[in-house]
Amino acid sequence: MVQSLRTNGAWADASKQLPAGATSWVDSRVKAGASATYRVIAVNVDGESQPSATATGIRPATDPAVGSNDVLTVDADVASYLTAPAFTDGVAGSVAQSSSGGVRTLSAGDLQIALPTFLSGPGSRAVGSGGQSFVVRQNDHECNLNGTLNVAEIAYSADLQVATMSATYSGTCPEGNSLYGEIRIKSTQKYAALAIDTPRVDLGRIELNTAPRTVRVTLTNVGTKDLVVGIRPLPADPTWTRQEDFACQQLARGASCAVVVTFTPDYPNDPLTSLQIDDNTARTQHRVRLSASVYTVPGAPDKVAVDATYSGVDLSWSPGFWGNAAPVGFVVERSVNGIETRFTVPADQTHWTEAWNGDSFATYRVSAVNEFFEGQPSDRVSLARAREQVTALVRRPNEPVVLGSLAVPKATQIVPVENAPTDATEVTGAPNGIDIAYVLGDNLWVRQQGADRLVRSGAGIAHPAWSPDGTRIAFNVVGSDSSACVDILTLSDSSVVRVGCNLDHPIWHPDNHSLIVQDGSLAGAPLTRVEAAGQGARIATLEGSEGATRAVLSPTGNVLAYAPAGTRGLVAFLPPDGGTATVADLGFVEGQTIEDLEWDTVGRQLAVLTRSGDRDIIQSFDAGDFLGGGGLSFSAPVYNTTTERIVDLTWQGHNVVIADVPAVNGPDVSIPFDTSAVNGDGTQCILDGEFLGSCTSPFTATGLASGQHTLRISPSIVGGYFATATRTFTVQ
Fold first, then answer.
1. Rounded to an integer, what distance in angstroms lies between the CA atom of residue 457 and that of residue 681?
2. Going by DSSP bridges, is the β-strand pair 103-108/683-687 parallel, antiparallel, or unpaired?
3. Considering Cα of 109, then 111, then 116, then 120, what sign does the dihedral take?
4. φ, ψ for residue 575 (rounded to 5)?
5. Each residue of 91-144: pLDDT tens digit?
6. 557 contacts 728 by C-beta, under 8 angstroms
7. DSSP codes joined into one string, 549-618
8. Which residues contact residue 27 at a Cβ distance below 8 angstroms, ignoring those fewer than 6 apart?
């Protein structure tokens, strides 16, 4: 029920017949220029509600004139979008209207505007977060405008339709871009609208120093008002120049003019500028986005490096300058005996590998390719046969563990090993620096000359260690009482002897007749030396070795390295017969765990595998310098990865293999050794620290004094590579 206020101050029912769903009513009794005050009361079968607050309406002295301007416009500032714009500029006539649920929808062409069903009259009002809803739609795009609706005139017919309307709107959409526009419904008021045929001009990719390009931007007055236009000078940029055109200063209704801009591609970049246009539309300023991409031949990749492993090639590089064209990839060119072969590599990959056995001399070079050109190739890099590598078991996410190799001193990728086993848990190298043994499940395998052979099965096989003469492998098994036991397998006849139980992590002593083990039968589980034989007797307990974990003996046999239990970032060094440990605090692994230790082929560099979260790093430092009183000298990481987990590793290097020597000898000795793994590069012999020069197998000496002696045999220096094999023996 609606009540109006009489002149005597009393309320009178204006209508008692409004249906329950009615939310509006036209009072045709109010005369032109007069006003009236109203309130609303809800009525149901039980009575009336309290009246609403009062509202006063004023009827204009004269109704707005009905005209012929019937149009919706949207001005989207298309040039402001970084990508394809959601809205486009548009002018559409013949406005239709419909109302539902308090919303009036105006439609013309591909434009729709949803606003409140009734507006109280002319004036400026906030829409969006500051007022009533105002939604602009164009095709599949929608903008809940947050801004202002300025109504110049509005009138409704008796059937509650808009009889005439003149308004402008402006504001921002949720994504941040602005919209302006005009609303005319049967209005006499004119409107201003400017159409730009190409508000976003992209010249695309242009080759450097080619002919200039000309852009014509056409401006058209698509409104009913004359337009006053001012075109600002372009920002200072010699690549873009604009011709003066006075025809654009005044644009009558329907008139057009052209703005001519010239682009000169004189340096490689992605030039972007805006043509600024001042005018008397509601937006007051328009822009034209001008862009291009000047491309050039990509530069040659740099830092091209190639290294070999036993199984393949580790080639890496850094991208050079791509130009402004989209990167496509790289071309790796291999040259072997005058034969060139090309391989393609994706643009996001800066490393490449292939199988290679080292039998031929190969060179490589790399060139970058963009979508237009292949650039200049890098300088050629040559590849030499690998004499050492780190062999690792590697797990990638959601993949099985695989056997791979890493180039030293620095690898950029895991080089695959042909027909490699999967899901192995441990790996160790043979004394020749080529063959390996690995644990797969409860099985011990050896790979010799590329062939895999199962040599032993048993519960809990772990921690294999190859004897210095290459004939036996010591390893852990689980005993009948679930304790850790050490067995020794003789490879020639597959016979096995048990050294003992409560022993863990066997390491071969350079005498080839004894093992260093972690002895769980003693307090503190120190390292002890035991005979490498069935029920091997304990020879000695290594003083100061309590709590030693991950112990490894240097190739020269003169120092043990281990990680003290319960510590982080500490590595201890101990003489092989025990004593006082020298501790290195590896500050770079603070907060990380030490997962493995490995000596290089000489026993000077100690490799440390550390883990922190998803990052595995194989870092090496000069243990010889440190033990000699120097500081910690870290090399570049051998490998640094966040995409792979290093399960286990061993450092291999081609080496001579010294045959077994009896535990006790007379004063005259003859000691055979095998140089086949070092390709006959020659060897040097050192006895008890005395350099004896070149030698061949067998090494012979006469008249040796009683006591312990140490024979060291090293291959001749080749390309900076060093290796050494050591044998201790006793003369009585």
1. 38
2. unpaired
3. negative
4. -60, 150
5. 999 999 999 989 999 999 999 999 999 998 899 999 998 789 999 999 999 999
6. yes
7. EEEEE-TTSS-EEEEETT-SSEEEEE-TTB-PPEEEE-GGGTTSEEEEEEE-SSSSEEEEEEEETTEEEE
8. 4, 14, 36, 38, 57
For 509, the 3-state DSSP assignment is coil
Q: Select from 115, 101, 223 the least CA-distant residue to 165.
A: 115
pTM (2 d.p.): 0.65
As beta bridge partners, residue 217 has 259
Q: Is the CB of residue 452 less than 8 Å from the CB of residue 436?
A: no
| 560-564 vs 570-574, strand pairing mode | antiparallel
The C-alpha atoms of residue 399 and residue 420 are separated, in whole angstroms, by 14
Q: Are 571 and 608 in contact (CB under 8 A)?
A: yes
DSSP notation for 516-534: EEEETTSTT--EEEEESST
Predicted local distance difference test score (pLDDT) of residue 22: 67
Determine the Cα–Cα distance for residues 86 and 96; give it in Å rounded to an integer: 23
Q: How far apart are CA 486 and CA 532, in angstroms?
A: 10
Helices (H) and strands (E) in the chain — how many of each? 1, 67
pLDDT in tens, 537-587: 999 999 999 999 999 999 989 999 999 998 888 999 999 989 999 999 887
CB 670 within 8 A of CB 700: yes
